[in-house]
Amino acid sequence: MKTLAFLLFLVLSLPSYGQILNAESLRKVTDTSGWSGSASAHFALKRNVNDFVILGSDVHVQYKMKEHLFIFKNDINFQKIEGNKFENSGITHLRHNNRFHDRIAWEIFAQGQYNKVSLIDFRGLLGTGPRFKLTTSENYKFYLGTLIMYEHEETADNFTPLQRDLRGSCYLSFSLYPTERISLVSTTYYQPLLKEVSDYRLSSQSSLAVELFGGFDLKLTYTFVYDAVPALGIPNSQYDFRTGISYSFN
């Protein structure tokens, strides 16, 4: 099965960029050091300016070594807008987590993305900050993160100038494991521009995964994003509902 996962990684690992990435969904729970990850394909219905049909795939690989966790995420989507041609978007994300205390870790991440539908030619992020574990139970976990990040953004609306700014990023996340076969992960992000807090992004994502067999899961995900100052002609709020199959490996 590890060979299958590696082949899926080679096939699906294409340049990828989205809107706001839920980094909590990338953390695969494992007690052992070494490689683990997942590969999935999905179908989605989405609405922002228009109605969309979306086909996509994503690959997540992580390496755990004692108190260190390294995460790589690559995601690509093809969107069809009300019968027109497919447009693509994607995201690539790298993250290092150093847990120097039972309840505190320090995170560093870098991210690149584009989204033709949202008129984002390129958005690059580089950030760092602490992450706090608020609970000790293995059946339910709550986390709080407070980070600062540098943002470089180029839009395609022929109006918005090149953006080079500092943003805060505060998130609250919880993971529930009611049974060995079911997991629920939900995260809410608040990302204000430091020089002008009225320019902020708010994102909430919830994912339900049900184990089917042999590492395969049925996964349902709902995402809501609000951008107080989007590109010209793009609505403030967007939502995304996805269903698909995911394969995980250790």
Give an overview of the whole structure.
With 250 residues, this protein is mainly β. It has a single domain, classed as monomeric porin ompg (Porin). The protein is 4% helix and 68% strand. A hairpin with a 4-residue loop joins strand 3 and strand 4. The longest helix is centred in the N-terminal third of the chain and has 11 residues. The protein is globular and about 50 Å long. 32% of the residues are buried.
Name the descriptors.
250 residues; mainly beta; Porin; twelve-stranded antiparallel barrel; 68% strand
The CATH topology label is Porin
Question: How large is the radius of gyration?
Answer: 18 Å
Shape: globular
Main β-sheet description = 12 strands, antiparallel, barrel
Parts with pLDDT < 50 across at least 5 consecutive residues: 1-18
Query: Given this structure, which CATH class is correct?
Result: Mainly Beta
* Separate helix tally: 1
CATH architectural arrangement:
Beta Barrel
Q: Oligomer, anyone? A: single chain
Please report which band the strand proportion falls in: under 5%, 5-15%, 15-25%, 25-35%, 35-45% or over 45%: over 45%
Measured as a percent range, the helix fraction is: under 10%
